[in-house]
# Entry
Amino acid sequence: MQKIEHKQVQETLFHEKLPNGLEVYILPKEGFAKTYATFTTKYGSIDNTFQVRGKEKVSVPDGIAHFLEHKMFEQESGEDVFQQFSRQGASANAFTSFTKTAYLFSCTENIAQNLTTLIDFVQSPYFTDENVEKEKGIIGQEIRMYEDNPDWRVYFGLIEAMYQNHPVKIDIAGTVESISKISKEMLYTCYHTFYHPSNMLLFVVGSIDPNQIMELIKSNQAAKSFEPQAEILRYFKEEPDEVAEKRKEIKLSVGISKCMFGFKESQQALGKTGIEMLKQDLATKIALEALLGSGSELYQALYDEGLIDEQFGFDYSLEQGYGHSLIGGDTPHPDKLLARIQSELPKLVQKGIVIEDFERIRKKRVGSALRSLNFPEWIANQFTGYRFNDIDLFQVIPILEQLTLEDVNSRMREHIHWDRFAISLVQPIN
Amino acid sequence: MTYSQFETISLGNLRVHVYSSPKFKTTTLSILIQQRLAPDVLTKTALLPNVMQRGTASYPSTLSLKRKLADLYGAILFGDVYKRGERHIIQFGLEIANEQYLQEKESLLQAGLSFLCNVLTEPQIENNGFVESYVNQEKTILKQKIESLRDDKIRYAAQRSMEEMCKNEPYALFNHGRLEDLPNIGAQNLYTYYQEVLNTCPIDIYCVGNVSSEEILQLLEKRLPTDFISASRNPIQITSTTPSVKDVKVVVDRMDVKQGKLNMGCRTHITASDPEYPALIMYNGILGGFPHSKLFTNVREKASLAYYASSSIESHKGLLTIQSGIEIGNYEKAVAIIKEQLEAMKQGQLSENEINQTKATISNQFREQQDRPYDLINFHFHSLLSGTHRSLSDMLEQIKGVRKEDIQKVAEKVQLDTIYFLRDQGGDPHAKD
# Structure
């Protein structure tokens, strides 16, 4: 077991890669009541065409990764695994994103039992025709709920506007139509491809003894046998630099318009991993904050003009195959807001970010990275997401300290490009 | 296991509560002001925290204020209003990094606390009032906030069902206020109101982090005006009536929606001040607090009618609400299944397993609260408002002691009051829904 100390933030991380390929990370948190664990596969909604080297290439219906996540809670005993977690005083859950599926629990007692339950249920699928059918009604209602959610619709509308081919444009839950085609055989195919230990990461954080926890995980895994698995090949259609649609608009029963816009990364800016990818991620976020963050002149002007409220914000998402910024919020006058953005941003980009703004925002980002370490959930999820891209979460503060104003200015000029700009609007009916 | 506690110290007529723990990498400061929940002050109360965050004597422009926060390693300032029974609470919070984890020598706690005191007691003023442009802008933002309630259908249905259920009771009021009050609020009258709130309403100040109470007290004494510290403050009078239910009300709202939102409101006639409160928490947990609960198992898992089906309690007014998102055509079916669950609770159809699972998960939830500064503060403030001063260990002990008959006694008190349904525009608008 490898011990990695992070002196400045006073955290010690333990790591081991098991013989079956599973990556295990343990972060003891002294004084915490809670232990939180995530068991995550590098498999999300975008992985819809794939092949295990040497086997057949398959394409699966939209929404299947998320469907599979729901069905994992079913057990051969007929009892939902939630019942068992409850008996052991744990709160369990799962989520599916574009690139990963995570199973998790948090508890304050019975840590060993809960951890064993987590690993065992994720490693013993049980799908029947009947339980697959039953889930379609439940997920159908989950899809309906999102259809009525304007924040989700404006967000997803923007992703759809940006991408022409990449499967990130497909809703994570799929559609009522696409999930109707899912069968237990397809679920097993996806399961056996992506839930092999060599494609997964287990993260445990809390008031724990790292040696004991590692021993428990190792003996649990040693008692199970897994065929060695060849490399997983994932296929994505080529994505042009241009956005699919410049502007996407829908009407819903809302009291105020929602406006979201952003820039898609060019193919040239994608494909990085590790430190280079982290630098791109952090530099882009600093640039966006300098341009549009709550301490920027533009933000304050738009606020004073009544075009935005305090929820106006931005985010940046970067994966190996896609990347984009998302900016926006509620506005009574979306077209006025967009006109202001389209006239002000080019000037600001040309002028460049000044050193005082850069230093202040860097400080803010360091403080925010430090604050995040108060939250075990955040640590586990963020660490895993980064790790799948060969990034170390604990490098965030050191890299922030290394970034220069030139890095951020040149990143800003690379990212802000109007051919790759798209807009999504949700407007009130009438 | 013993649990750390807040140390409470009086500072004049203010109460200061400090929780010292080295486990957090930040220090969290929070100021909680109580006001009565009443139509004449509602919207002014809702507007205050937003105006107060626009500028202070030391940082008069919003931009300078925001930039100061960023300079303090991205300290987070927030202000909001919420309801606790028939009290309206204004909360300010400031979370700031602890410099011992940074390459920083300056005391961030001192800077952060000064900043927060500034926001509270020294807002930027002009002509004996708040800055007029700030007030006008914040009125517009608040108007939008009230109008956008309908955007989030889950929240909208929750608020509408409470409005209908508690018609003619203060609890029906929306925490963000009413549109009709906005035209009468101006920079001067809001400032007068601010002074009244500041100098007469009960105020609690919380601090959680790697700090000592002496240090906090010293800093506060130095930073807060003496007349503010010594101002006399009157407890908020609650005229809490929980009428007994005669007929179940049915209310249907229509909007352009794909999914129906079903909210069923009950009166529990039990509040956090009552000895039956732990049994009520157990009742709610078994009914709909968890994935093992009756609602989740029966509405979702067995009948496949919903993605979410749960219940929650309002502890100061004595209410319980059930919420679920369903296919519009399944309304009757869902209502019937939910009523069956309420009936099963009354009939004492509670297995040993359900009771044990619920005790385990509720205790876990309470213990987990110790890891989040704001949860610690909320738990303490909640027990303070209830007048019981239940500590975490008291609560855990009491939950452990709840017996099946106690839960059944709660079930006998719980009365379904209102069935609210938000549905689409389709179907016959005159039909009985």
Observations:
- Chain B touches chain A through 71 residues (CB under 8 Å).
- The longest helix of chain B spans residues 352-368.
- Chain B is about 40% helix and 20% strand.
- The radius of gyration of chain B is 23 Å.
